[in-house]
Amino acid sequence: MSQIGENLLKAATLLESDELVGIPTETVYGLAANALSDSAVIKIFEAKNRPTFNPLIVHVVDIDAINKYAELDPISLKLAEAFMPGPFTLLLNKKSIISDLVTAGSAKVAIRVPNQMMTTKLLMLLTFPLAAPSANPSGYVSPTTALHVQEGLKDKVSYILDGGPCDVGLESTIAEVSNNQIILHRTGAITAEQMESITGLKVVANELTNKLASAGQMKSHYATKTPLYRGDIPEMIKEYANKNIAVISFNKLYEGLNNGHQYVLSPNSDLNEAAKHLFEVMRCIDEFQFDMIITELFPDEGLGIAINDRLGRALEINKQ
Ligand code: TXA
Ligand code: MG
């Protein structure tokens, strides 16, 4: 079993020797390796059982460091200055120092500046950036604690830096400036409205995220092992009265089902709090022998948009 701790020097030394280290970020935990070393990066794909056609996000210490690895056009710079460090990833034209293994052959690299003190300190100790996908086996729910990383990856990760539970709890927003528009590749804590108000440009959803495509845009993702359905909770409680049901709801308990089987993400109707607890709850339910999970649509605003997206990808009907 991999060790969990707060030893930054140990983490840095392991990364310098091309080993994998679990790192905390404000979104979810990452499985990090030296982004400039192909022999380190290949270990990420192996440990996660991730197809090599699915590219990785590169994590750097600050906006200045982005320039070493990618071209920051003026609009992307504006977005970076507004939202970095933070739960925000930019797709940028890569410089040749970033290998095709990291970008899966694409001329674009995904870069982000995490806003988590321990990982910032780690990046300051290193002379290279960190490639890091979410630290879960490919296809499963992203980890929001060090323990989740350990449970999912066992001894496939050398060490896990423990920075406590993630503040945001959902993966970063991914955006790309293209033809005077902003393409939203993944929803997250930074919303389309925020990007529009900073740049004055229109934000368009990436078609791929809606349809079904290669790379990380797989429709099914983040899935629980327990089949998940979305609809009208009171009606579904009645319809599946003979099943062992768990409910994931936004802000309230429903009639007709044992309260112990109901997971209310935010009794105060706070979407940020709901986002922070979502993945933990999905994992927790998988520990029990429920026949199915029933959930509902969350308010379509702020982090509710990203919550609906992640739950949507976990639905039984979207499993391949
Ligand atoms: O919040 C986050 O972004 C977390 C933390 C650890 O930073 N990372 C994360 O990584 O969610 P991952 O690998 O689980 O998701 C990254 C997504 C994938 O869907 C991948 O396909 C996409 O970003 N991506 C990465 N590089 C890309 C590229 N060059 N072009 C297009 N999509 C890219
Ligand atoms: Mg992931």
Topology, element by element:
Elements: E1 3-5, H1 8-16, E2 21-23, E3 30-34, H2 38-48, E4 57-59, H3 63-69, H4 74-83, E5 88-93, H5 100-103, E6 108-112, H6 117-125, E7 130-131, H7 146-153, E8 159-161, E9 173-178, E10 181-186, H8 192-199, E11 203-205, H9 207-210, E12 228-230, H10 233-239, E13 245-249, E14 262-264, H11 271-286, E15 292-295, H12 303-314
Parallel strand pairs: 1-8, 2-8, 4-6, 5-9, 10-11, 12-15, 13-14, 13-15
Antiparallel strand pairs: 2-3, 3-7, 4-7, 5-6, 9-10
Bound molecules: threonylcarbamoyladenylate and magnesium ion.
Question: Keywords, please?
Answer:
alpha/beta; 320 residues; binds threonylcarbamoyladenylate; Rossmann fold; 12 helices; DHBP synthase; single chain; globular; binds magnesium ion; 2 domains
Order of H and E elements: EHEEHEHHEHEHEHEEEHEHEHEEHEH
Classify the secondary structure makeup into a structural class: alpha/beta
Query: In one word, what is the shape?
Result: globular
SS elements, strand count? 15
Structure description:
The protein has 2 domains: 3-216, DHBP synthase (Alpha-Beta Complex); 223-319, Threonylcarbamoyl-AMP synthase, C-terminal domain (Rossmann fold, 3-Layer(aba) Sandwich). 33% of the residues lie in helices and 19% in strands. The chain has 12 helices and 15 strands. The strands form 2 sheets. It has an 11-stranded mixed β-sheet, with helices on both faces. A 4-stranded parallel β-sheet has the order 12-15-13-14, sandwiched between helices. The chain is globular, with a radius of gyration of 19 Å. Residues 210-216 have low confidence and may be disordered.
